[in-house]
């Protein structure tokens, strides 16, 4: 399996390129509009054919490159079930599995940051958590129909029940981390260690974070796969 972690410094966003090196089929998870040219060049250099653009959720902090990538490669754009994104070619629900070549990518429902959110378990070893679980943190739950109780349940009952050596790759990191494991996060993640469900809900309700700078433009643009902005 080819696996690449790609970074957008302006929004602290990670995108992930997954490919089967034998067939050249690839998927790109949580692409960033401003990085489409970088991603297309990388795939061209590696001889890859983009089959899917996947979204863990409708992002509020950056605009997806999925629509532009679809125009340029003919890939399919897939988003979580019930996501407000009529532009998508298809929707994925919990336990759905797609393949790039022989590499399985399994969807795991991880609601809470938003009311439609998926993590992706790649090849049974690499977990792309989107904004549900960060390295020593987690996504906020105070907008886009977020639900702290649902996020606690998703992380503790779905993600923390995976094997402890499962690699954790988040959608963002603000402190320079690139990868963790389920075992590490179960032991050291301060959002969850030592907190029960009610304590987690109360903690999340008092974060008092400012809204993302691009929220007003990113959400409506992402509901159109980024095309409304790309066409300007």
Write the layout of secondary structure elements.
Layout: E1 2-8, E2 13-19, E3 25-29, H1 36-46, E4 49-54, H2 66-73, E5 76-80, E6 90-92, E7 97-100, E8 103-109, E9 118-122, E10 126-130, H3 148-159, E11 167-170, E12 180-181, H4 182-188, H5 197-204, H6 215-222, H7 227-230
Parallel strand pairs: 3-4, 4-5, 5-6, 10-11
Antiparallel strand pairs: 1-2, 2-3, 7-8, 8-9, 9-10, 11-12
Helix pairs in contact: 3-5
Overview of the structural elements:
The chain contains 7 helices and 12 strands. It is an alpha/beta fold and 232 residues long. A 6-stranded mixed beta sheet has the order 1-2-3-4-5-6, covered by helices on one side. Strands 7-8-9-10-11-12 form a 6-stranded mixed beta sheet.
- Tally of DSSP β-strands: 12
Let me know the largest β-sheet: 6 strands, mixed
- The CA-CA distance between the termini, in Å, is 37 Å
Helix percentage: 25-40%
Strand order across the largest sheet? 1-2-3-4-5-6
Class from helix and strand fractions: alpha/beta
Order of helices and strands: EEEHEHEEEEEEHEEHHHH
The share of residues in extended strands comes to: 25-35%
Uncertain runs: none
Rg over CA atoms, rounded to whole Å, is: 17 Å
Residue-averaged pLDDT, rounded?
Answer: 94
> Which overall shape is indicated by the principal axes computed on the Cα atoms?
globular
Number of helices: 7
Main features:
7 helices, 6-stranded mixed sheet, alpha/beta, 25% helix, 26% strand, 232 residues, globular
In short:
α3 (148-159) packs across α5.
């Amino acid at each position: 399996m080819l696996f690449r972690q790609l970074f957008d410094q302006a929004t602290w966003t990670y995108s992930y390129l997954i490919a089967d090196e034998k067939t050249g089929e690839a998927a790109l998870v949580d692409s960033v509009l401003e990085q489409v040219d970088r991603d297309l060049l990388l795939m061209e250099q590696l001889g890859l054919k983009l089959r899917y653009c996947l979204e863990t959720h409708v992002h509020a902090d950056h605009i997806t490159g999925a629509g532009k990538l679809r125009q340029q490669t003919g890939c399919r754009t897939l988003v979580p079930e019930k996501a407000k994104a009529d532009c998508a070619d298809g929707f994925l629900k919990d336990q759905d599995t797609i393949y790039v070549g022989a590499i399985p990518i399994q969807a795991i429902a991880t609601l809470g940051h938003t009311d439609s959110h998926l993590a992706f378990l790649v090849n049974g070893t690499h977990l792309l958590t989107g904004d549900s679980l960060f390295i020593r943190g987690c996504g906020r739950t105070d907008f886009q129909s977020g639900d702290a109780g649902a996020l606690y349940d998703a992380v503790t009952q779905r993600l923390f029940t995976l094997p402890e050596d499962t690699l954790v790759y988040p959608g963002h990191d603000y402190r320079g981390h690139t990868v963790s494991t389920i075992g590490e996060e179960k032991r050291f993640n301060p959002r969850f260690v030592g907190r029960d469900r009610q304590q987690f809900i109360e903690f999340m309700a008092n974060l008092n974070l400012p809204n993302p700078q691009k929220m007003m433009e990113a959400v409506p643009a992402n509901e159109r796969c980024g095309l409304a902005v790309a066409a300007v």
